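Known limitations

Structure tokens in this collection are predictions and should be treated as such. Users comparing against experimental data should check residue numbering before alignment. To illustrate the layout, the record for MftR C-terminal domain-containing protein is reproduced below. The input appears on top and the generated tokens appear beneath it.
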Amino acid sequence: MSTPSRQPQRLEYFHGIETAMAEMTTTRRQRPLDDLSTCLLAATVTAAFRLVFERWIAEGTTPDRLWPEVDEAMRLVLQL
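Generated tokens:
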């Protein structure tokens, strides 16, 4: 995941996830699509997942380690 030439593709992929998460969250929270707090929440959660995923790939750990790391990242996000 550290290949510089692939960075635009990774960012585009995670931007799509962020957009979808923002749309789902605004619907659930009954807020407009441009609601700052909802968009910030979607961006933060997506960034946390991206960082965990990139670290998981870089470390070459086993699949069973991914979701505990995601859980830990979400706990940290909740503390912000």
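For this record: The first helix runs from residue 7 to 29. The chain has one domain: 4-78. Please report discrepancies through the issue tracker.
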